Amino acid sequence: MGCATKAEHAASAPLPGVGGATAVAGGPPRCKLVLLGDSGVGKSALVQRQCRGTFNPDMTVTVGAAFLAHTLSLPSGVAVKFEIWDTAGQERYESLAPLYYRGATAAAIVFDVSSEKSFARAQHWVAELQRHASQRPLMVLVGNKTDLPAEERAVTREAAAELADSNDMLYIETSAKTGSNVAALFELIAEHIAAPPPT
Amino acid sequence: MDEEYDAIVLGTGLKECIISGLLSVDGLKVLHIDRNNYYGGQSASLNLNQLYERFRPGQQPPPALGPSRDYNVDLVPKFIMANGNMVKILIHTDVTKYLEFKSVDGSYVFNKGRVEKVPATDWEALKSPLMGLFEKRRAAKFFSFCQQYDEKNPQTWRNWDLSRMTMHELYTQFGLDVQTIDFVGHAIALHQNDAYMMQPAMPTVLKIKLYYESMMRYEGLTSPYIYPLYGLGELPQAFARLSAVYGGTYMLAKPDVEVVYDEAGVAVGVTSEGETAKAKFVVGDPTYFREKVRKSSRVVRAMCILSHPIPSTNDSHSVQIILPQKQLNRRHDIYVFCCSYTHNVAPRDKWIAFVSTTVETSDPQSELAPGLQLLGKIDEKFVEVVDVYEPVEDGSRDKAYISKGYDATSHFETEIHDVMDLYRRITGKPLDLDKEDLRKRQESQ
Hints:
The complex is a heterodimer. Chain A is of the alpha/beta class.
């Protein structure tokens, strides 16, 4: 009897929830990517564009899919497995939980290039990230909505690049609507994760 | 906030967050509010600075204790039974993807002045120093019976009707002695007193079976328990996220939030900062319903920082020790819970140990002595006595669905019953955990 039960033991499952950004034996390196930024800057739209190739202008506040797994293969042949966390609307009333930031490998801090306010708030999100993340994640400042007409643009590329520089962030401009630079954003992160620059 | 919801949930303790998540998944429009600016309420995990603010206001933690942020000290520490309903809810809702769990090294029991590993299976019984040679064989037969018992298969019943036969009678059938019965009832079936002995045997046999199945549930378990990395405070956050993902709205830091009742005394919404949100019903922990709850007991807890594992636990990094009431001439068991840096709740080479029990005297702190004595040298100790409240009504009349406070036990089995009961009271249907889980539902879409 004792032996028979031991055999059952071997058939039992591994513990649930083995998350984290560590490389699984044989698999591609994993990257927990968290999206930050005010409501309405296009965080979910960027993910939708990258993972599903779609853009929905009527997308309201994120509901239903706030965790996406996405594997990206780089031209070098290296692949990165993204676990992308969206805010699920919890940023609206400043109620993002520390759990959200926990173990993040990378963070995309998104603002709307037509909104001075959302840009001013990017600094706030950088501070929140530094307060909660135990290890400093790779940070990318993302200026989204470059498809808008030039006269609506409220934040200059120079001002954004300067903010990124002073906080040791990368900077990229995207349009989730047209898809411009969205793949480049994810590749940029993947390249840095797969081969971190020498320190 | 001036809006209408199906449900408003007050307090972001674990029970409220599970309920909020389940209701959002069911398609209800949920508003979830906490008076504090952090998640978790009573189920939060504190860093060292927060711990000092709470227990030693005005004092700085000594540098020798290490960095504050490395601490995640539960206010209400509990281990999770690996095959229990808590894990079933985690898997059912796919919340496991937000969390990481690690097994708990050992489950121990205090017996005749010594700390011994709890034998939970027939073969462990044969090795256990808790019993003499003949008693080992009797216990092995008893465990074997419990492991194989199946309510639906009469062949496993041995012609006994466990829905009528008392547990005392079943023990007698196997000829188990008093010491064995003591650790089986308290450290395996997790009863808090001996009232179960005169009740039908079935629930206890199923609890013993659950303990055994939990040990078999995951690879390499050496106890039936698991525990999340970074502490229990991660759980409410994960369920809050589930609720948000399914449309729940979260508002923290509303210190003045209050329930609004109509003329008939029925809860119809909440108010805060001059705004009112309406809802069909309101759910919350007892602190939001002071006039609708009564004190059910008092719990005393000591939180201790150690620089070593608890002696006689085989250098375990995480361990539960149950001190059955009878061993101490008490009416309630004492629980010891210990975790370390391997579960990311303390800096390297530090252990966090908790000793808790239900208060029986006017000197609660000294009631913990038998548990504290097991810990060896204690670097720092914080003691708290908390009143535990329970709702007076079930919510059907006043639409105020109130959870119970957290008890002294160091495991989740009693708390999860309260969550399931709350869900049934609110929705009128039992929580069906065998239903297709959310991950599968999403994949099939």
